[in-house]
Amino acid sequence: MRSLLSFFALVWAVAVSAISTTGDRLLVVLDDVADQSSYSKFLGDLTSLSPCPLSVLRYWPRRGFKLSFETPKSESLSLFHLGERAYDHVILFPSKSKGLGPNLTANLLLQFINANGNILLTLSSGSSTPSSIVSLLAELDIQLPADRTGLVVDHFNYDAASAADQHDVLLLPAPHSIRPDIKDFFGAGASSNEVLVFPRGVGATLGSGELLTPIVRAPRTAYSYNPKEQGEVVDDLFAAGEQLALAAAFQARNSARLALVGSAELLEDAWFDAEVKTTSGQAAKTFNREFAKRLSGWAFQEIGVLRVNWIEHHLNEVGASNESNPGIYRIKNDVTYTISLSEWSWSSWSTFKVPANDALQLEFSMLSPFHRLDLALDPSHSTAEAAAYTASFKLPDQHGIFNFKINYKRPFFTNVEEKNTVSVRHMAHDEWPRSYVISGAWPWITGIGATVAAWLAFCALWIYSAPIDQKKGAKKL
Amino acid sequence: MAPKNRNNRDVTPSAASTAQTSATSSGSAPQAAVSTSAKPAVNKSVSSSSSSKQDWNSVVVNLANSYRDSAPQRTKLIDAFMTFLVVAGALQFLYCVVAGNYPFNAFLSGFSATVGQFVLTASLRIQTTEANKSDFPSVSPERAFADFVFCSLVLHFFCVNFIN
């Protein structure tokens, strides 16, 4: 309990100083530090300390990351210092070199994720992907095109203004959630005339693991090929259609996040305010700035972070003690379980609302679950910052060591895995209902009564009929 | 320890011999019963079915008459009580079959109260019957009744406790 309190104190301290729930030290790795000027708006949004004056309509909360710029080959670059993370988050911009050097090996980047560090990884078709990035992604079951080079083109959804011939600047509708039960973090609120520009990017294919989720999929008419191969006809496609993920999310079991963007150019200033023209000739605004903000916000734990405030369970029986979180229950007790959850969105904790078509479930399990119940919102215990979810149920007719278990792992939300262990004892010998309470036992109670009464009558008659026998007995004696 | 065991061994043959004697002495009564019942069976093979029915009727009437006339009052009392116990037990068992055995402990105690009482009463009947006097030389009818009352009270105590 004390460790939990200190953890909340820590979270509070971090939340006051920075917008991210895990820290504000952000490392930006660029081939040439001078390149940062082309990403100035994106990086400026990350460091902005006041609402952005440019977009009055949209609320730009302060994000306040402390940026450090390094080149991959820099001697001073180190993700860890004395065994601890030196940075909380890393942005990797594409590099022209073949590898990223000894300080950014795939193994080190994986260790960084294992130490709860977050990574925003960008690719570009202009340069071949460094080998350490390829092996890092292979480790996460994300496949890149062969020869580390690929280009996604679409002959039906391209920007007619800038790529009328090459067709390699894709215009995509604002991303939407891939399943109805997943909260739409990235495309919510986008107007219909805004398009996401995906210029000269690399598409990846994702493995089937549950830790991977596509954020933006390529349109059905897009495909990826190797631009270095000369030839009129492309006969060696890497992938095509919706199997190409242009932006993808990986969330590890420890809730550390890696976001992959196929096109680093998407984040450049030039595309943030660019006017593009669809193939049908309509002018459209770009959604890139908002998308970049949301994607980096997700990757750096600014949205979709869940917190368990408290868990409480108690007996729900008339006349029973009202003790919270007792260590022991009896079989067939009525029990109420309540969990309070908050969701961090950009700058504050708010109530966590379970997405429509999804359910927060409680398991009451010993080895395997005996109950799996939907938790319902409990308004009486909810506040402006925390939503309480509750379920009442009868414990199973089985004694042993049980767990109240919440295992809520959903794409884009940090994992919630809570286990509260309780003992469930069997009935004490005096806790069974008396026979006279059970109407089915009345005939047998009557049977005993009749037997005893008849026995008493028999004894009385026996003694009453004694004299004759006694005379006989006396004679014989 | 060893001498005690030897004593036990010495005791057992004598106990077995008493059991044998009791078996032979009690065996005489069934033999008599067989000889009486053999008579109508022989008749049946010879005469028609109607006459055999009349014979059976007369046998039953004779049996009832002799029981009514010659059985002591206490034996009749015991028999009435045992009949009641059989009926009460059968009813409880029937209820269990028809309505289910929940709560099972109630059925067990109710049913076993009648069964146990029946056994105890049967023991009382055996020990107090004049004809068995020779088998229980040391047990007077008063002593038998006292044992019966004590054992019955223990039985009722157990049954009432067990039905909870």
From TrEMBL, chain A:
Signal peptide range: 1-18
UniProt keyword Signal present: yes
Domain OST48 N-terminal residue range list: 25-299
Topology of the protein relative to the lipid bilayer: Single-pass type I membrane protein
Chief location of this protein within or outside the cell: endoplasmic reticulum
Source superkingdom: Eukaryota
Subcellular location: Endoplasmic reticulum membrane; Membrane
Keyword Signal assigned: yes
Pathway: Protein modification; protein glycosylation
Keywords: Endoplasmic reticulum, Membrane, Signal, Transmembrane, Transmembrane helix
One BP annotation, GO: protein N-linked glycosylation via asparagine
Membrane spanning residue stretches: 441-464
Every OST48 middle domain range: 322-465
InterPro entries documented for this protein: DDOST_48_kDa_subunit, OST48_MD, OST48_N
Cellular-component GO terms for this entry: oligosaccharyltransferase complex
Subunit architecture: Component of the oligosaccharyltransferase (OST) complex.
Protein function: Subunit of the oligosaccharyl transferase (OST) complex that catalyzes the initial transfer of a defined glycan (Glc(3)Man(9)GlcNAc(2) in eukaryotes) from the lipid carrier dolichol-pyrophosphate to an asparagine residue within an Asn-X-Ser/Thr consensus motif in nascent polypeptide chains, the first step in protein N-glycosylation. N-glycosylation occurs cotranslationally and the complex associates with the Sec61 complex at the channel-forming translocon complex that mediates protein translocation across the endoplasmic reticulum (ER).
Family: Belongs to the DDOST 48 kDa subunit family.
PANTHER family on file: DOLICHYL-DIPHOSPHOOLIGOSACCHARIDE--PROTEIN GLYCOSYLTRANSFERASE 48 KDA SUBUNIT
The protein, known as: Dolichyl-diphosphooligosaccharide--protein glycosyltransferase subunit WBP1
UniProt source species: Lasiosphaeria miniovina
Lineage: Eukaryota, Fungi, Dikarya, Ascomycota, Pezizomycotina
Automatic annotation (TrEMBL), chain B:
Subcellular location: Endoplasmic reticulum membrane
Keyword tags: Endoplasmic reticulum, Membrane, Transmembrane, Transmembrane helix
BP terms from Gene Ontology: protein N-linked glycosylation
Xref: InterPro entries: DAD/Ost2
Keyword Acetylation attributed: no
Pathway(s): Protein modification; protein glycosylation
Ranges of compositional bias, category Low complexity: 12-33
Disordered: region residues: 1-52
Transmembrane segments: 77-100, 144-163
Any matching Pfam family: DAD
GO cellular component, one term: oligosaccharyltransferase complex
Membrane topology term: Multi-pass membrane protein
Family membership: Belongs to the DAD/OST2 family.
Subunit details: Component of the oligosaccharyltransferase (OST) complex.
Protein task: Subunit of the oligosaccharyl transferase (OST) complex that catalyzes the initial transfer of a defined glycan (Glc(3)Man(9)GlcNAc(2) in eukaryotes) from the lipid carrier dolichol-pyrophosphate to an asparagine residue within an Asn-X-Ser/Thr consensus motif in nascent polypeptide chains, the first step in protein N-glycosylation. N-glycosylation occurs cotranslationally and the complex associates with the Sec61 complex at the channel-forming translocon complex that mediates protein translocation across the endoplasmic reticulum (ER). All subunits are required for a maximal enzyme activity.
Protein name: Dolichyl-diphosphooligosaccharide--protein glycosyltransferase subunit OST2
Provenance organism: Lasiosphaeria miniovina
Lineage: Eukaryota, Fungi, Dikarya, Ascomycota, Pezizomycotina
